User: What shape does this take?
Amino acid sequence: MTITEILERPDHSRFSIELLPPLKGEHIDSIYHTMDALMPFNPAFVDVTYHREEYVYREVGPGLLQKRTVRKRPGTVGICAALMNRYHIETVPHIICGGFNVEETENALIDLDFVGVRNVLALRGDAIRSEGRFKSEPDGHGYAIDLVDQIVDLNKGIYLDSDLKNSVSTNFCIGVAGYPEKHFEAPNPGSDLRWLKKKVDHGATYIVTQMFFDNQRFFDFVDRCRAADIHVPIIPGLKPLTTAKQLQVLPQIFHVDLPEELVKAVDQAKTRDQVKEAGMKWCTQQAEELLEGGVPTVHFYTMGKAQPTVEIARRIYGTVQV
Ligand code: FAD
Assistant: This one.
């Protein structure tokens, strides 16, 4: 089933999650443990992030460094297939432009189609950490919208090789990212919104937002989207703050503001558990207000730590959600 079909069902679960593949060398069991803990809350679907390559430098002799390319969290496609098989749940692999040329993208989409994945979140991806700014591959996509175009083409049976005859059409439902507080590279919110609208006009059928900690930012964003003629479902992304360090790290990485009230609550906490409790309390209140405000579902970024999301789900949805 596609995400838009799920969201159209009046009785659909208002809880969805994003998981990270385990670090290379770790077992998939960590994902299963997370899923086992979250399944009683009946998630509507599960996103699995994609992590591009990074450069690491290894000393190979005195003063000699060797540059190596590694992917620290491979496994997105395999995890999606495994979760669908084990939990009978719809999965949404994240597909990024960075690190792929168009041929590799096409082949990845064919793999996904063959394993029965019906949904993808089409993203540009960020810069390689050591590079500072995003660079596409030669013959790769520079923006998410170009990736959306390629998926839409494949949905029409249009492959890169125009000599292919009677080629099979895929049937992917395409989600894209939106930024209530503006994407950090966009010159202004209006410009960011125009590109978002283009992604939707080109074929994206729903939007998932970057995390935010002030619901008003989300509600304003939805109003601006609707005024700009963007009428697809907009799913709010929430992350429970779990450590005091995240007061600096989250704005730095995700370019989001943290409200003064939340910062004060974390500053006043005396122990790690109290910090976690302040973060969970904030996230629970955010989710409850969003649900009252009629959002299609609340999407939780677990970021490799299931426990706070499990606890928040328990507080909001009770033991088992129907
Ligand atoms: P785009 O939509 O391409 O936008 C990038 C910037 O360019 C924006 O400033 C936009 O305004 C502008 N723009 C867009 N199109 C054009 C154009 N044609 N010409 C000029 N300017 C344009 N990253 C990962 O690596 N893996 C993940 O799994 C992952 N999951 C994510 C999930 C969510 C819900 C979100 C919100 C982000 C995720 N990211 C992930 C991060 C994402 O890759 C980065 O935020 C990236 O910098 C932008 O991706 P995008 O798809 O929004 O890019």
User: Anything to note?
Assistant: The pocket of flavin-adenine dinucleotide is lined by residues 49-50, 52, 94, 96, 123-126, 143-145, 177, 183, 185-186, 191-192, 195, 199, 208, 210, 237 (CB under 6 Å). The chain has one domain: 3-317.
